[in-house]
Every structure is written in C-alpha cells, then in structure tokens.
Amino acid sequence: MTEAQTKTEITFEDFKAEVLNDYRIAKISRECSLLGRKEVLTGKAKFGIFGDGKEVPQLALAKAFQKGDFRSGYYRDQTFMMAIGQLSIQQFFAGLYGHTDLAHDPMSAGRQMGGHFATHSLDENGNWNNLTQQKNSSADISPTAGQMPRLLGLAQASKIYRNVRGLEELTKFSNAGNEVAWGTIGNASTSEGLFFETINAAGVLQVPMVMSVWDDEYGISVHARYQTTKENISEILKGFQRDEENNGYEIVTVKGWDYPTLVETYQKAGAIAREQHVPVLIHVNELTQPQGHSTSGSHERYKNAERLAWEAEFDCLAQMRTWLVDNNLATTEELEAIDEAAKKEVLEGKKAAWTAFVSPMKEEQQELVSLLNSIAETSSNKVFIEKYASELASIKEPIRKDIITTARKVLRLVVKESGQSQLATWITNYTNKIQPKFSSHLFSQSDKTVLGATTVAPTYDESAEEVDARLVLRDNFDAIFNKYPESLIFGEDAGNIGDVNQGLEGMQEKYGELRVADAGIREATILGQGIGMAMRGLRPIAEIQYLDYLLYAIQIMSDDLATLQYRTQGRQKAPLIIRTRGHRLEGIWHSGSPMGMIINAIRGIHVLVPRNMTKAAGFYNTLLETDEPALVVECLNGYRLKEKMPTNLGEFKTPIGVVETIKEGTDITIVSYGSTLRIIEQAAKELLEVGINVEIIDAQSLLPFDVNHDCVKSIAKTNRLLVVDEDVPGGASAYLLQQIVDEQNGYQHLDSQPQTLASKAHRPAYGTDGDYFSKPSAEDVFEKVYAIMHEAKPEEYPSLY
C-alpha cells in the first residue's frame, strides 16, 4: 500500500515526489478498474463496478482526511481507499473474486461485491480498536443514498464528544470532537429522498460533515436533465448556503480534473468542518466514467460521439498528466515509466490474488477426488462414482459449489455401502468448515452478545405502591443516563415535552439538549444518527414515535444496521437501541403491528416485545451491557396502567430470547406477546369457568425467540397450541408457529392441529369498534380455544355455533 502524504512545509523536490506519488496511486487505481472489467468479462468475477474517472478528486479528499475521521461513501471510492493506505492491489482483486478470507479481503471477506469498502473498527474478539489512531471507513452498502443517514450520525458523534461532559475517558473514539465525517455520492443518487433528508438534518444540527458529490452527468444511462432540477445539485441547494445571520452549509463547486484546485478545496473544506463544525457540500463536476456504469453494459450505447470525445480529453488522469508536464513536475517519459510500472504491478497483484483465491479450493478438490476414487473401489456404483470424480478433477478452477455438489450426489450412490459413513462424515466436516465463511456474524460473536447477558429480577419494597407505568420507564431512563454518560436519546418530541407518553419527563432539563433531544419528522435519519453514533462508541437510543412510522426507516434498518456485523464479518458494529411504541390504539395509522414484515426485514437486529414497562425498562438495561442492535416495542396502551416501582432501577435486566409462562395450565398452550396478552388473560379466566385451563406464554422477544425451547416443553404437557397476535394473518404468528412446530419439533407432542389467531387482513379501522372488529378480542380467543377443545372432546365441549 502507498499512502498519500501531505506536509505543511516541504521543498520543491518533496512536493514533486508527493505529486508524482499521487499520480502513481491514481494510475494504479485506473489499471485495477481496467483489468477488473476484463476479469468479469472472462468469467473469473461475477460483477464489477469501478472508480475510474473519479481518481483525482479522491486523491484530494484523501489528503484532507485525518486519523480519527470517518468515511461514509459511494461504491466507487477505491482510489481514496488506496490513497489512505487501506486497500492494496491484491485486496482489490480479492474483493472482486469474493475471497471469503478476511486476511485477503478485509473489506467484507467476500460478502459484498467489489467496490464496497470498510476498515476494521473491532479486533477479532469484537473489542473496539482505537479509532482515533486510524483512518476509518464505515462499511459501504449498495442501495443508492443509503450511506447518507449513517453519515449524519458519524458527524454528530463529533459534536457530542466536543460538547457533552463525562466522555473525556472515551479516548478510543474521539479527540475532543475534532473528527470530520466525509460523505461521497454519485450525482444521480442525490435524487433520492435520503440525500435531501440528510442534507437538511445536517444543516439543522450543524455537524462536521463534508459531502462530496461526484458528478459525471449520468445515472447509469439516464442524463442529469432527468435527475436534477436545473441539472445542478449545488445550484438548487444554494438556499442552504450559510450567511452572517443564518447557519447552513458552505457550498463549493470544483472541476473534477483540476488537481491543484481540488487539493486546495478539500483542505479548506476539512478545516471549516473540523474547526467550526459547519457542514460543507463539495460539488465535483466535469467528471467522466471511462468504462460506463458497470460491467453490465456499455456507455457507448447512451453517450454520443461528442460526449465521448469530451470525456477522452477531460479524463481526470489525462488532465493531471498535462498539468504535471506543463508545470515541469514530470516529463512525458517519466510518466510513461510510471504508467508501465503501474500496469505491471497491478497485473502481478491480480495474479497473486487469483492464486490465493483458487489454491484452497484446488486442495479441497483434490482431497475429495482422492476420497471418491477410494470409495469407488468397493462400491457397486464404481463406474458412476469414478465419472463424478473425473468430472470434478477436470475442472481447472473449481469453486466450492462444484466440490460440495459432487460429494452430495455421490452420497446417494453409496447408501448402505461401506463408503457411506466416510463420505457423509467428510460432507459434514466440510460444511461445518465452509458454511461459517458465508453465514457467520449475523449477530455478535463477542463476549458481549445478548445471549450471554445475566438476568437480574426487579426488586421491590414491601410497601411499594403501584404507579403509572410510564414512571417506571422515566425513572429507569434517569438511572441509565446517570450510569452511562455515553448514552443519549433523541426523536420526535423526545426532548422538551419528555416524549408523547411522558416516559422521558424532565430528562432534557436534567441532562441537557444534546443527550435528550428533539428531532425533526425524519425517521430515516433518526435511525442514521443512531447508527453513526453507535459506530463511534456512543450508546444512542433512537426513538421512532410510533411503530407505524418505522416503515420510513425500515430500509435503513434492513440494508445498513441489520447487516453491519455480517457484511464486515464482525469487524464493525453499531449497538443502537431503537425505541418505539405500538400495537392497539385507534385507526389505520396509529395501531399497526406489522411485526411479520419487521422481523423478516431486519434479521441481524433483535426484536423485543415487552408486555409492560418494567419488562421494557429491563430490556434497555440488558442491551446497554451488550454490543448488539435491538428494536424495543413498548405497548402503547400500557403507559397509564399501574405497575410497582422497582428499587433497583437501571440494574434489573429482562432476559433476551427467553419466554415467560405467565399462567400455567393443562389443556392448551397459548403463545403471544405485547398488549394482546391482556386480552388472552381475560379470555383465560372465562375459559376456566367452562373447565378449560389455558397455559399462557409471553414470547417477550421475537428475535431471538425462545432459545431454551420452553414452548415445546409446555406443549408436551398440554398437547395443543394456539399462537395469537395482532399482526395480519400469516405475519408474526406464522413465524412463531414455524419456530415452535418446526424448529422446536413441537409437532411431536400435538394431539390437535396447531392454529393461529391474528387480526383481519386489513389495517384496523378507527374507534373502539374498529379495534374490536379488526383485531383479536377476548371473545375471539375464547371461541378459538373452545373450538379446538370441541374437536378434541365434542361431548365435553359441545359446539357453540
């Protein structure tokens, strides 16, 4: 790796060496793009999306980028990553091939296609590195503008570290808030709502963020005239420009081929953001895309001859060459020598990456071929097995699919033969070795995983009186903010009025506007604030006012937060807590329970559904001692119900992944969660009057669900199962049924068909009657259970209808 250097006072010779080194880095990056495309088109790699045409402005960005800073960027920033010393030629190609070894592809261990970059915030045990002593890149994602919300949080963390007392000891994460968050995006992607939402929020918050827009006039084949009003993003954002009377942005436009002006521009932008905590927008225009958007097509199809000729002339590397020669910094011969050396170096790096990629698989191929030939000797299907072995051996460059597919097909041929056990063992061992390369780290594998958290029950004074449940939450948050100076909460109405249900009453006055903060109506960037700050060592709680509004943020939760540990193979984390409230209230927009959609969209985030506020408070206490993200859904109709006030606020911990039996019974097991449990409890009392004894289990958490398999233990006693929830039919109830019947093998103990009871397929209508006729009622539960018992014992429980 060759890192770009910038010195404050240098001689002409030093300056010349630095500039030529920059050119060399850019040329290496360009050659990687050109050769990378060939690797895709010859079939060695699956897909390529490269940073050619953007090299020179990325050099300038790298020069202003300092240790401790963070990048949240676009999937074309390979030159920048090379310039900060975080991407070698061999690593570039390892990523292109999808090498599953983190030592070869440190960006994602083959889990993301090339062009998606990350540095390691964590060591191999999941512990934080010193982020102030390294140059940091948050892990990229493909969804356009999806990097924007996280960028806001990365920048806001600096503001928190600079202005909030009590964080002085967190020296691994910040040097008094002097770090800048640098964002990059393609011009066409500025059409996305996430871009505008983030730009607005950063201007409101006044955070140290420098946003670069790489403008080559196209979004794949679609010209800027169809993307942006006036075809100019900086022009239409002029209203954000700060002035003497109003905060806002510093907005700069610079040509992407003008090396000296780019360097000057980025140095000034970095200083403004770093020193003044003012966001900066740099519109880098007149860029090119020499190979088009990706390996999926050719830009000659949509660019005319005039445009292609202009791109050839104003290619940033061509212009940099001209500048170097015109300013006597290099001769044409010197540059040609650099070009030739770069081409050779890239070719050698590519070969080394390919050899490292295929060598382990060739060894695995040879191992299986040898085993199959040995097994064939004593098999009645010798001819067929030898054919499989020969076909596998003939594959010049095998992949693991070729290897395991062959083994599994041969296994069918040796059933009941002596070789079956040997081959089955090989397949099992191989799968156990290889599968984690593709499936590990969906959740934390550190010693701070939620599954390792201890349970601490709430304690009470003998004379404890019942209070409004929201006071349990409020006083527990008070204990949390006192115990964890790095904790903070923000959301719509979370600050001044103490949230819409008063669970944060008085907290802003006590802990300040930065730690207990109001936010605009912008759910996606509220999530982004939390992700970015959590990636920098803070413990944010992002509040989404109602569960229905989570849909605005579900894409960020799904594509960014839920995949973070997975897509970095455990080398980045964002232990964000998302707080919301939901379930029963009134009408279509404020009483939804789209839990099935949520749990299937955000695997990688824990989903917790406490039935009361004490349980919810215990979840917050548990999560703050772990390192994983979670969504906590408080019961919207539970804040004014009465609960006893615990004496060990901030300390008691609700277990995650553990169900609770809240009523024992003998005839049928009902599994549910949240507000619906109160309805089930009422129905259970009425069922007991007719001789049906129901066992009620509170799921408590949907992800993970019942890690101790207590539900199946209950079914072994009752032999019947009903899952009740207020999601649509086939939503979370179908998931719970699958977990119990399939995952836990609960079917073995069932004497009756397992059933579900959910809401109607439509959203709930307004009013009390709307609730009754849209969601399960106590009568629905009673009659559903009664019907199950009627089928089992018709004489004892005659039909109601």
Keywords:
801 residues, alpha/beta, 7-stranded mixed β-sheet, 6-stranded parallel β-sheet, globular, 3-methyl-2-oxobutanoate dehydrogenase (2-methylpropanoyl-transferring)
Report on this model:
The chain is an alpha/beta fold and 801 residues long. 42% of the residues lie in helices and 11% in strands. It contains 27 helices and 22 strands. Strands 11-10-12-13-15-14-20 form a 7-stranded mixed sheet, with helices on both faces. Strands 2-1-3-4-8-7 form a 6-stranded parallel sheet, sandwiched between helices. The chain has a 5-stranded mixed sheet with strand order 17-19-18-21-22, with helices on both faces. Helix 6 (193-205) links the parallel strand 3 (181-186) and strand 4 (209-214). The chain is globular, with a radius of gyration of 30 Å.
Taking the sheet with the most strands, its summary is: 7 strands, mixed
Mean pLDDT: 96
Question: What is the end-to-end distance?
Answer: 78 Å
In what range is the share of β-strand residues?
Answer: 5-15%
The total count of helices amounts to: 27
The assigned structural class equals alpha/beta
**Overall spatial form:** globular
Q: What ranges have pLDDT less than 50 throughout 5 or more consecutive residues?
A: none
- Radius of gyration (Å): 30 Å
Total number of beta strands: 22
Major sheet: arrangement of strands: 11-10-12-13-15-14-20
Helix content: 40-55%
Protein name: 3-methyl-2-oxobutanoate dehydrogenase (2-methylpropanoyl-transferring)
Keywords: Oxidoreductase, Thiamine pyrophosphate
Domain Transketolase-like pyrimidine-binding: 467-641
InterPro entries: DH_E1, THDP-binding, Transketo_C/PFOR_II, Transketolase-like_Pyr-bd, Transketolase_C
